[in-house]
Amino acid sequence: MQIRIKKYLIAATALAFTGTLSLPIQAQSAAANYPNKTVKMVVPLTPGSGADIAGRIVAKSLAETWKQPVIIENRPGAGGLLGTGVVVNSDPDGYTLLVQSASYAANPA
Fold it and tell me: How far apart are CA 106 and CA 109, in angstroms?
């Protein structure tokens, strides 16, 4: 009886790993053509702030690397919640990014 259980566990484990082997291939094929349109980076702070300057530096580097435009959109107000709301309510397709300062972690949700 012990041998049957052991064989069953080995077979089940092998089957589980077989299914997960295709995941990296699927992820690579999905990421191969990203981005294929303009990427928007939302900065929920005023223009000229530290996060805005850092976001612009990152956006320039990403645009050169991706060969796609990366646009900075400043949405200040409510301690960063307005801009964050724009990102939260955007399509979950990876084309809207958030640049935020570390102090945001102290704001109420």
Answer: 9
